Amino acid sequence: MENNSECINALLPVGDALDVISGKWKLLILISISSGNHRFTDIERSIPKISAKVLSKELKELEAHTLIKRTVYDQSPVLIKYTITPYTETLYPIIEELRLWGLNHRKVITGK
Amino acid sequence: MENNSECINALLPVGDALDVISGKWKLLILISISSGNHRFTDIERSIPKISAKVLSKELKELEAHTLIKRTVYDQSPVLIKYTITPYTETLYPIIEELRLWGLNHRKVITGK
DNA sequence: ATACTTACTTTCCTTTAGGTAACTACTAAC
DNA sequence: GTTAGTAGTTACCTAAAGGAAAGTAAGTAT
Fold first, then answer.
1. Is B102 in contact with A16 (Cβ distance < 8 A)?
2. Taking CA atoms, what residue in B is nearest to A4?
3. Where is B69: in which H helix or E strand?
4. What value does the mean pLDDT take over residues B12-39?
5. Percent residues over pLDDT 70 in chain B
């Protein structure tokens, strides 16, 4: 990233990506579902501090972006499963880089 | 990411990373500075839709996290330069993955 | 009939983010 | 002395995000 054409080359796509996944919760929800939490209550319990209202709203947005799939199983009580899609997996490199950076950052701020 | 221990292993550090860099503007500002925009007005002009107020606030937060350095040159008119730090460079892999994902995402939503 | 469970939704309220526009302090140029 | 540039700040207001708690619908268990 040395010159201005690189600036515009990065600003636009990074902005596009941030429009979809920025915010506190979306990636955490995808991590939870990817790790095996498929039901609303499971996901809610796995992510500290998230509320049902926020989870509900974020799940809808993720579904709209085809980053998760919502399936209703007609049992009783009704069973609903959220699963990842092939598109979710395209985010794994981003999640992994964030995980590595976060691990190092914690070392940095706690003074190693 | 298959099981619950991987869930907690990823949720915490990714959450730490998001605490520092999430939001619409911070990564875009770092891209702009990395690309050679070092002055307030240059950065402001390089990022569509950002306002002086928001830029000012975000620059302060980035400086507090040592992700940029603010230097005052005592000339006239006064010259202030924002520069990246070695710590900024540790974010490049994240930015690059976001750039690649954003490029592909635009292809996906515009129907290739 | 009552209570419980799942998967949310609704209401109310507070906080945070963001936009617009005007304003400031300093200096230089005309 | 008026205009212009740099680097912001301030005030005012709206919008979006988020928290807490209660409520809802549909079925199951007792």
1. yes
2. B35
3. strand B68-73
4. 95
5. 94
